[in-house]
Write a structure and sequence with these properties.
This protein is α/β, with parallel strands linked by helices. The chain has a domain at 32-166 and 248-309: Alpha/Beta hydrolase fold, catalytic domain (Rossmann fold). 31% of the residues lie in helices and 18% in strands. It is built from ten helices and eleven strands. It has a nine-stranded mixed beta sheet with strand order 1-2-3-5-4-6-7-10-11, with helices on both faces. A two-stranded antiparallel sheet has the order 8-9. The chain is globular and about 50 Å long.
Protein backbone atom coordinates (compact mmCIF):
# COMPACT_ATOMS: atom_id res chain seq x y z
CA UNK A 1 0.00 0.00 0.00
CA UNK A 2 1.23 3.50 -0.84
CA UNK A 3 0.89 6.34 1.65
CA UNK A 4 0.79 9.74 -0.04
CA UNK A 5 0.87 13.33 1.25
CA UNK A 6 1.58 16.71 -0.30
CA UNK A 7 5.04 17.93 0.63
CA UNK A 8 4.88 21.17 2.63
CA UNK A 9 7.30 24.01 1.95
CA UNK A 10 6.28 26.48 4.65
CA UNK A 11 7.88 25.03 7.80
CA UNK A 12 9.90 27.93 9.32
CA UNK A 13 12.90 25.80 10.29
CA UNK A 14 13.28 24.56 6.70
CA UNK A 15 13.33 28.01 5.10
CA UNK A 16 16.71 28.92 3.60
CA UNK A 17 18.22 32.08 5.09
CA UNK A 18 20.98 32.55 2.51
CA UNK A 19 20.27 34.68 -0.56
CA UNK A 20 19.06 32.47 -3.39
CA UNK A 21 18.38 33.10 -7.11
CA UNK A 22 14.90 33.10 -8.59
CA UNK A 23 15.33 29.74 -10.31
CA UNK A 24 15.92 28.05 -6.93
CA UNK A 25 12.82 29.62 -5.36
CA UNK A 26 10.82 28.51 -8.39
CA UNK A 27 12.15 24.95 -8.26
CA UNK A 28 11.53 24.24 -4.59
CA UNK A 29 8.15 25.94 -4.89
CA UNK A 30 6.95 23.36 -7.39
CA UNK A 31 4.46 20.99 -5.74
CA UNK A 32 5.53 17.43 -5.19
CA UNK A 33 4.11 14.47 -3.35
CA UNK A 34 5.72 12.66 -0.46
CA UNK A 35 4.98 8.97 -0.93
CA UNK A 36 5.87 5.73 0.84
CA UNK A 37 5.70 2.16 -0.45
CA UNK A 38 6.57 -1.01 1.47
CA UNK A 39 9.39 -3.05 -0.07
CA UNK A 40 10.29 -6.31 1.65
CA UNK A 41 9.02 -5.19 5.07
CA UNK A 42 10.68 -1.77 4.86
CA UNK A 43 8.95 1.54 4.11
CA UNK A 44 10.65 3.23 1.18
CA UNK A 45 9.98 6.94 0.84
CA UNK A 46 10.16 8.91 -2.39
CA UNK A 47 9.11 12.25 -3.87
CA UNK A 48 6.95 12.53 -6.99
CA UNK A 49 6.49 15.61 -9.20
CA UNK A 50 3.51 16.17 -11.47
CA UNK A 51 3.63 17.87 -14.85
CA UNK A 52 2.99 21.62 -14.50
CA UNK A 53 1.06 21.64 -17.78
CA UNK A 54 -1.47 19.05 -16.66
CA UNK A 55 -0.46 16.16 -18.92
CA UNK A 56 1.26 12.85 -18.28
CA UNK A 57 4.46 12.44 -20.29
CA UNK A 58 5.07 8.94 -21.59
CA UNK A 59 8.49 8.36 -20.05
CA UNK A 60 9.85 8.95 -16.55
CA UNK A 61 13.04 9.61 -14.62
CA UNK A 62 14.05 8.36 -11.18
CA UNK A 63 16.83 10.24 -9.36
CA UNK A 64 18.94 8.31 -6.83
CA UNK A 65 20.93 10.16 -4.16
CA UNK A 66 24.43 9.56 -2.82
CA UNK A 67 25.56 7.98 0.44
CA UNK A 68 23.95 9.40 3.59
CA UNK A 69 21.87 11.74 1.39
CA UNK A 70 18.17 11.73 0.49
CA UNK A 71 15.57 12.62 -2.13
CA UNK A 72 15.64 16.33 -1.24
CA UNK A 73 19.05 16.60 -2.89
CA UNK A 74 17.04 16.57 -6.13
CA UNK A 75 14.35 19.10 -5.13
CA UNK A 76 16.00 21.93 -7.08
CA UNK A 77 16.89 19.70 -10.06
CA UNK A 78 13.84 17.49 -10.66
CA UNK A 79 11.30 20.27 -11.48
CA UNK A 80 13.29 21.20 -14.59
CA UNK A 81 12.29 17.82 -16.05
CA UNK A 82 8.67 17.63 -14.92
CA UNK A 83 7.15 19.19 -18.05
CA UNK A 84 8.59 16.50 -20.32
CA UNK A 85 9.00 13.51 -17.98
CA UNK A 86 7.31 11.82 -15.08
CA UNK A 87 9.77 12.50 -12.27
CA UNK A 88 10.53 10.93 -8.89
CA UNK A 89 13.42 10.78 -6.39
CA UNK A 90 13.93 7.90 -3.98
CA UNK A 91 15.18 7.65 -0.40
CA UNK A 92 17.17 4.41 -0.34
CA UNK A 93 16.65 2.22 2.73
CA UNK A 94 18.53 3.46 5.77
CA UNK A 95 18.61 7.03 4.46
CA UNK A 96 16.30 10.03 4.30
CA UNK A 97 12.75 9.26 5.40
CA UNK A 98 12.88 5.58 4.44
CA UNK A 99 12.92 2.78 6.98
CA UNK A 100 15.97 0.92 8.23
CA UNK A 101 17.03 -2.70 7.79
CA UNK A 102 19.17 -5.04 9.82
CA UNK A 103 21.33 -5.60 6.75
CA UNK A 104 21.70 -3.72 3.48
CA UNK A 105 22.68 -5.11 0.09
CA UNK A 106 22.95 -3.51 -3.34
CA UNK A 107 20.67 -6.18 -4.84
CA UNK A 108 18.00 -5.39 -2.27
CA UNK A 109 18.26 -1.69 -3.02
CA UNK A 110 17.96 -2.48 -6.72
CA UNK A 111 14.64 -4.10 -5.84
CA UNK A 112 13.65 -0.96 -3.93
CA UNK A 113 14.37 1.06 -7.07
CA UNK A 114 12.29 -1.35 -9.16
CA UNK A 115 9.30 -1.06 -6.82
CA UNK A 116 9.45 2.74 -6.71
CA UNK A 117 9.63 2.89 -10.53
CA UNK A 118 6.40 0.92 -10.59
CA UNK A 119 4.64 2.61 -7.68
CA UNK A 120 5.46 6.10 -8.97
CA UNK A 121 3.97 5.21 -12.36
CA UNK A 122 7.01 6.36 -14.30
CA UNK A 123 5.86 4.68 -17.48
CA UNK A 124 7.48 2.06 -19.64
CA UNK A 125 11.24 2.07 -20.06
CA UNK A 126 12.05 5.05 -17.78
CA UNK A 127 15.50 6.50 -17.14
CA UNK A 128 17.45 6.46 -13.88
CA UNK A 129 20.11 8.92 -12.72
CA UNK A 130 22.35 7.99 -9.79
CA UNK A 131 24.91 10.18 -8.02
CA UNK A 132 27.94 8.79 -6.13
CA UNK A 133 26.68 5.89 -3.94
CA UNK A 134 23.44 6.06 -5.90
CA UNK A 135 25.53 5.41 -8.99
CA UNK A 136 26.64 2.08 -7.52
CA UNK A 137 22.98 1.18 -6.97
CA UNK A 138 22.22 2.32 -10.53
CA UNK A 139 24.92 -0.02 -11.84
CA UNK A 140 23.46 -2.88 -9.80
CA UNK A 141 20.01 -2.12 -11.18
CA UNK A 142 21.42 -2.10 -14.69
CA UNK A 143 22.78 -5.61 -14.16
CA UNK A 144 19.66 -7.01 -12.49
CA UNK A 145 16.88 -5.17 -14.35
CA UNK A 146 18.54 -3.16 -17.11
CA UNK A 147 16.13 -4.44 -19.73
CA UNK A 148 13.34 -2.58 -17.88
CA UNK A 149 14.80 0.90 -18.41
CA UNK A 150 15.75 3.03 -21.42
CA UNK A 151 19.06 4.19 -20.01
CA UNK A 152 21.09 4.98 -16.90
CA UNK A 153 23.24 8.01 -16.07
CA UNK A 154 25.93 7.64 -13.42
CA UNK A 155 27.26 10.82 -11.84
CA UNK A 156 30.74 10.91 -10.26
CA UNK A 157 30.63 7.40 -8.84
CA UNK A 158 34.16 6.14 -8.00
CA UNK A 159 34.14 2.80 -9.80
CA UNK A 160 37.55 1.40 -8.89
CA UNK A 161 39.97 -1.00 -10.46
CA UNK A 162 39.86 -4.35 -8.65
CA UNK A 163 43.40 -3.91 -7.30
CA UNK A 164 42.85 -0.36 -5.98
CA UNK A 165 42.78 -0.11 -2.16
CA UNK A 166 39.45 1.06 -0.71
CA UNK A 167 39.35 4.67 0.51
CA UNK A 168 39.79 4.20 4.26
CA UNK A 169 38.27 7.50 5.37
CA UNK A 170 35.21 6.94 3.20
CA UNK A 171 34.52 3.73 5.12
CA UNK A 172 34.57 5.56 8.47
CA UNK A 173 32.48 8.61 7.64
CA UNK A 174 29.11 7.07 8.49
CA UNK A 175 30.14 4.82 11.38
CA UNK A 176 28.52 7.04 13.98
CA UNK A 177 26.04 9.89 14.37
CA UNK A 178 25.91 12.74 16.86
CA UNK A 179 22.82 14.26 18.42
CA UNK A 180 22.72 18.08 18.57
CA UNK A 181 20.71 20.00 21.18
CA UNK A 182 19.22 22.48 18.70
CA UNK A 183 18.24 22.39 15.06
CA UNK A 184 20.29 25.45 14.12
CA UNK A 185 23.43 24.06 15.78
CA UNK A 186 23.07 20.90 13.72
CA UNK A 187 22.60 22.91 10.52
CA UNK A 188 25.79 24.83 11.30
CA UNK A 189 27.69 21.56 11.69
CA UNK A 190 26.64 20.16 8.31
CA UNK A 191 29.57 19.31 6.04
CA UNK A 192 29.84 17.86 2.54
CA UNK A 193 31.68 14.55 2.16
CA UNK A 194 34.22 14.38 0.68
CA UNK A 195 35.17 17.82 1.94
CA UNK A 196 34.87 20.50 -0.71
CA UNK A 197 34.03 24.15 -1.16
CA UNK A 198 30.73 25.19 -2.71
CA UNK A 199 29.89 28.71 -3.87
CA UNK A 200 26.15 28.03 -3.74
CA UNK A 201 25.62 28.44 -0.01
CA UNK A 202 21.85 28.44 -0.42
CA UNK A 203 21.95 24.88 -1.80
CA UNK A 204 24.19 23.57 0.98
CA UNK A 205 21.92 25.19 3.56
CA UNK A 206 18.82 23.74 1.91
CA UNK A 207 20.34 20.26 2.02
CA UNK A 208 21.41 20.69 5.64
CA UNK A 209 17.94 21.78 6.77
CA UNK A 210 16.36 18.74 5.10
CA UNK A 211 18.93 16.28 6.48
CA UNK A 212 17.80 16.35 10.12
CA UNK A 213 15.20 14.60 12.23
CA UNK A 214 14.08 15.12 15.80
CA UNK A 215 15.42 12.41 18.09
CA UNK A 216 14.89 12.45 21.86
CA UNK A 217 15.73 15.90 23.14
CA UNK A 218 17.79 16.86 20.11
CA UNK A 219 18.39 16.53 16.39
CA UNK A 220 20.21 13.86 14.43
CA UNK A 221 21.05 13.12 10.80
CA UNK A 222 18.58 11.16 8.66
CA UNK A 223 20.69 8.10 7.99
CA UNK A 224 21.47 4.80 9.64
CA UNK A 225 25.19 4.64 10.54
CA UNK A 226 25.19 1.07 9.19
CA UNK A 227 23.59 1.97 5.85
CA UNK A 228 26.95 2.69 4.19
CA UNK A 229 28.94 -0.41 5.08
CA UNK A 230 32.40 -1.06 3.69
CA UNK A 231 31.11 -4.21 1.93
CA UNK A 232 30.37 -2.16 -1.18
CA UNK A 233 34.10 -1.87 -1.85
CA UNK A 234 34.26 -5.67 -2.05
CA UNK A 235 31.62 -5.91 -4.77
CA UNK A 236 32.84 -6.23 -8.38
CA UNK A 237 31.24 -3.02 -9.63
CA UNK A 238 33.84 -2.81 -12.37
CA UNK A 239 32.38 -6.04 -13.75
CA UNK A 240 28.82 -4.85 -13.13
CA UNK A 241 29.54 -1.68 -15.11
CA UNK A 242 30.58 -3.78 -18.08
CA UNK A 243 27.53 -6.02 -17.77
CA UNK A 244 24.75 -3.44 -17.44
CA UNK A 245 21.86 -4.42 -19.68
CA UNK A 246 20.98 -0.90 -20.78
CA UNK A 247 22.43 2.21 -22.36
CA UNK A 248 24.60 4.15 -19.97
CA UNK A 249 26.44 7.44 -19.69
CA UNK A 250 28.79 8.98 -17.14
CA UNK A 251 29.00 12.54 -15.80
CA UNK A 252 32.06 13.69 -13.86
CA UNK A 253 32.90 16.90 -12.03
CA UNK A 254 36.08 18.48 -13.35
CA UNK A 255 37.36 19.10 -9.79
CA UNK A 256 36.06 15.85 -8.27
CA UNK A 257 38.07 14.48 -5.36
CA UNK A 258 36.77 10.97 -6.02
CA UNK A 259 36.99 10.55 -9.80
CA UNK A 260 40.07 11.78 -11.65
CA UNK A 261 40.30 12.06 -15.42
CA UNK A 262 42.34 8.88 -15.36
CA UNK A 263 39.58 7.24 -13.38
CA UNK A 264 36.99 8.49 -15.85
CA UNK A 265 39.03 7.02 -18.69
CA UNK A 266 38.99 3.66 -16.90
CA UNK A 267 35.22 3.88 -16.45
CA UNK A 268 34.84 4.84 -20.10
CA UNK A 269 36.71 1.68 -21.05
CA UNK A 270 34.34 -0.39 -18.92
CA UNK A 271 31.25 1.18 -20.47
CA UNK A 272 32.44 0.91 -24.05
CA UNK A 273 32.70 3.35 -26.96
CA UNK A 274 28.96 4.00 -27.22
CA UNK A 275 28.67 5.44 -23.70
CA UNK A 276 29.10 9.23 -23.50
CA UNK A 277 31.44 10.62 -20.84
CA UNK A 278 30.70 14.22 -19.87
CA UNK A 279 32.83 16.49 -17.68
CA UNK A 280 31.12 19.45 -15.97
CA UNK A 281 33.56 22.38 -15.69
CA UNK A 282 34.27 23.85 -12.24
CA UNK A 283 32.27 21.16 -10.47
CA UNK A 284 33.48 19.08 -7.55
CA UNK A 285 32.04 15.70 -6.55
CA UNK A 286 28.62 17.12 -5.68
CA UNK A 287 27.92 18.30 -9.21
CA UNK A 288 24.28 19.27 -8.61
CA UNK A 289 25.40 21.66 -5.86
CA UNK A 290 28.35 23.23 -7.69
CA UNK A 291 26.86 23.54 -11.18
CA UNK A 292 23.15 22.66 -10.89
CA UNK A 293 21.98 24.21 -14.16
CA UNK A 294 24.89 22.75 -16.13
CA UNK A 295 24.05 19.37 -14.62
CA UNK A 296 20.41 19.74 -15.69
CA UNK A 297 21.50 20.64 -19.22
CA UNK A 298 23.85 17.65 -19.45
CA UNK A 299 21.20 15.19 -18.26
CA UNK A 300 18.56 16.66 -20.58
CA UNK A 301 20.89 16.44 -23.57
CA UNK A 302 21.70 12.81 -22.87
CA UNK A 303 18.07 11.80 -22.44
CA UNK A 304 16.90 13.64 -25.53
CA UNK A 305 19.70 12.10 -27.61
CA UNK A 306 18.73 8.64 -26.43
CA UNK A 307 15.08 9.23 -27.19
CA UNK A 308 15.82 10.47 -30.70
CA UNK A 309 18.05 7.49 -31.44
CA UNK A 310 15.29 5.16 -30.25
Amino acid sequence: MTVQTLLKNDEPHLKVRATAPEWFDWAIGQPCESRTVAVECCDIHYLRWRSPVGRAPKRGILFIHGGGAHANWWRFVAPFFAEDYRVAAIDLSGMGDSGRREKYTSSQRAREIREVLSDADLGEQPFIVGHSFGGFMTVQFGVDYGDQIAGAIIADTPIRRPDDPPPGRAQRIFNYTRTYPTFEEAVARFRLMPAQTCDNNFLVEFIARHSLKAEGDGWNWKFDPHAMGADRWKEPFHEHTQNMRCRRAYIRGELSALVSREGADYISGLMGPDAPIIEIPRAHHHIMLDQPLAFVSAVRALLETWQRSA
